[in-house]
Amino acid sequence: MLERFKSDHPHSGIDACDGGGRWISYDLARLAESGEYTDGGVGPYSSYYTSLLIPPDKLHNVVDFDHIYYSATTDRTHLAMDPTWYRDPGSGPDVESIRKDWDIYHYLVAQGVAGRWSHVFRPKVENDDAVWYFQRMNRDSSKGVILTKHAKHGSTYYVISRPSTSSAASADRYRGGAGEMNVVTTTSAGSLETGIYEDPVDGASRYYGVPGQGFGPLNVKYQFRGGDESLVTGIVKLGAERKVSDQFFGMAIQLDEPMMITQLGQFDPGNNRGTYTLSLIRAGDNKVMATADLDMSRIYPDAMGFKYVRLAQPILLGVSKTPVVIYPRGLQPVATYEVRASLAGVRLHKTGSQLMSDGISLDKVAGGELIFLNLPNYPGSGTDHIPPSLPANVTKRLGKNLGTEGIEVSWSPSHDDNWISYYEIHKNGRLAGKTGKGTFFFDHSDSARNELDARFEVTAVDGDGNRSPAVLAQTTTGEPQTYEALGDFSATQSTKHWAYEEVVEDGTYRELIWDKGGYEGRWTGSGLGRIGRIWMQPSAANDLSRTFIAPASGTISTSGSIRKDPSAENKASCFVRILQNSVQVWPASGWAEVSVDYDKPTNYALSNLHLAAGDKIRFILEHNGENRADPIVWDPVIVFHDSDSAH
To answer: What pLDDT score does 20 carry?
Structure first.
C-alpha cells in the first residue's frame, strides 16, 4: 500500500508514527521520510540505540515532551536525528535558536555528515556517561561532528528513593511522568540535571527530563553557615501523579564545589504512609555514598511539602576536576583532522589514529557544545567574511496557501563561497520573516491580502551573518481574490469576513459562542451544534450557518464538495443549502442531501453571483432533531472575479 501511495503521489511523504513508533519496521522505515518513535521524548537516548537498527535521519523525536522553550544544553540532541520541534515556541529568540540548529543540520546534510550514506559512531568517553555523546561522519569518515547532549561542569550524583516495602494495596504516590515532570529551582551550590528512573529490564539508572526536572521530587539538605540549607528552593510545577511501585525514582544533580550532605528528603503529595530508602549514589562508578530510611507516616513536611530523614553521619560529596575525554571512532588513521570545538575554543590538528588513541579533552562541556572534524567553515564559525551574491528574479504576487490568502514572495537563489544560511524578507522596511530552506516566503498576516502594494525586499545571509544588498520585489500576476474556510477560520466573529451563526425561531440569526475545546477550538450553538475549521455538526433544533460577508461589491463564484465525516455516529443523511442573503441559490429548492457514504460527495458549483458590499452568502446545515455527534466536512471557497472586489 505504501509503495503504491509513493508511486501515485511522488511529491508526498509518509510519517511513520505508529503507536509511538513501536511498529516501525524496516520496510516502513525504508518507505517513510521520517517516523516518530516515542510520544514522550527520550532525552539523551534519542538515536543512541535506535540508530543501531534504523538510520537516524529516518526517525524524529521530541527531546522532552514537557517544554516548549529552547535550551541548547539539551535541544541540540535534535541534530542526532531528523530534527523536529513539538509545540509552539512563540515568535521570540527561541525560534531563532531553533532556526540556527536546523541550519546546522542542513549544513551537515550538504556535507554528507547527515542523511543518506552518513555513518554513526558512539564515542568512548572518560569522566562522563557516554550516552550524552553522539558522533556523525560522512561516508568515507573524512569529516564529521560530535554532538553533546548536556552540560558537564561538575561531579554528578544521583538521589533516589525506593519503597522499603511494596504493596499493591498501598495508596502512596509520587510525582513526575512522561510529559509532566516536576520542575524545581535550586541554590547555586548545585544544579538539578535530570530525572532518574529504574530501567525495568536491567535495573540500571536511566535519565529522563531536562535541567530543573526530576521525579519525586526529592531533595537534600547540606551544611551552610552553621545550619542546614535546602538544595531545592522552590517547586515551580508538580508533575503527573503516579502510583509508587517497587522501582526507584529520583534525580541527578551536578556539583561544582564539595557539599556536606546532612539530610535526604522526599515530597509527600499528602497521604503517603510508607517507608522509603533514600540513597546518594556517585554516578561515575555507581558507588552508594549514603542511605537512610524515611518513614513518611511519622514526619511532618516543611513548607514546600518535603519530609526529611537525617543521615547517621554527614557525608561529603567531593568534586572531581578531571576533564571529560571523548575518543572518536571510525576515523581514517593516517588522515589529518582539524578539530574545532564550537564553544570551548579547542583547536587541534591531529591524525585519526592520534585522536582515537588520545581523545579530545574538554575541561568542561558547555551546553550545546559541538565538536567539528574537518568542517572548519560550519555556520557560526566566523571564518567567512565575504557576503553572498544578490537574490535574483525577486517577485511578489497574490496567492493562497492552505486556504489562506496572502502575498507570495519568490526569488532565484543567491550564491556564497561557503554557505547560504537564510534569506531575510523585509516588508515596508521591517523584518517580516526569514526563509531557511528554499526561495519562497508567504506573508499570511491578517491584512496581507490587502497589501500587494507593500514594499517587499529580500536579502541573502551566509552562515557567519554576512548580508547581500536587499533586492526589491516586482509585482507579477497572481491569483484572484479568494476566501476559504480552511485558512480564514478564526476565534473572533467576522474576522476575515466570516461569521458563525444559528437560525432562531423567528428566522433571524444568532451568533454562536466560541469554545476553545477540541484540537483547535470551535463555535458552539444549541445542543451539539458546532462549526469548526472545515466541519459542521448539526444541532437538534436550529439550523447552522457559516456566513461569508462580502467586503466589497463584485461578482463571485463558489464551489466545493460536501461529505459525511467518517467519525459520524449514525448512518443518517444530512441536508444543506446555500443562501444569498435570504434568497436560496443552491439547490434550486428544498435541501441537498449529503450521503452517509464519505466516498459519495455532494458537489456544487455556482458562478456569476453579483454581490453588494455587506451581502451575505450563508452555507447552511439543517437541524436533525437529534443530539448526536454527526458532523459533515464542508470547506466553502469564495472567489471574486472582477475589479469591484477591491480588498
So the answer is: 59
> Taking the mean position of all CA atoms in its chain, how far away is CA 151?
22
Distances (CA, A) of 109 to 116, 344, 576: 8, 24, 51
Q: What would the DSSP string read from start to end of 136-151?
A: EE-TTSSSEEEEE-S-
Does the domain at residues 482-640 carry the CATH identifier 1.20.1070?
no
CATH H superfamily, domain 392-475: Immunoglobulins (2.60.40.10)
Residues 6+ apart with CB under 8 A from 71: 210, 211, 367
Query: What is the C-alpha separation between 135 and 189, in angstroms, rounded?
Result: 32
CA gyration radius, the chain = 30
Half-sphere exposure of 51 toward its Cβ, with a 13 Å CA cutoff? 25
Q: For residues 490 and 480, is the Cβ–Cβ distance under 8 A? A: no
- Which cell numbers hold the place of 133? 555523546
Residue 425: its H or E element: strand 420-427
CA distance 370 to 502: 58
Q: What are the residues facing 420 on neighbouring strands?
A: 462
Cα–Cα separations (whole angstroms), residue 34 to 15, 18, 61: 5, 11, 10
Global pTM exceeds 0.85: yes
Sign of the CA dihedral with 34 first, then 38, 41, and 44 last? negative
Domains of the chain: which residue ranges? 37-151+324-373, 155-317, 392-475, 482-640
d(CA 364, CA 369): 10
Which three cell numbers, joined as nine digits, stand for 588?
434550486
CB 541 within 8 Å of CB 622: no
For residue 458, CA distances in Å to 122, 466, 482 come to: 42, 14, 26
Distance, in Å, from the CA atom of 69 to the CA atom of 219, rounded to the nearest integer, reads 25
The CA-atom distances, in angstroms, between 346 and each of 8, 334, 361, 603 are 51, 21, 9, 66
Retrieve residue 51's grid coordinates. Answer: 540508530
Q: Is 8 exposed, middle or buried (0-12, 13-18, 19+ CB in 10 A)?
A: exposed
Q: What would the pLDDT profile of 211-265 be if each residue is shown by its tens digit?
A: 999 999 999 999 999 999 999 999 999 999 999 999 999 999 999 999 999 999 9
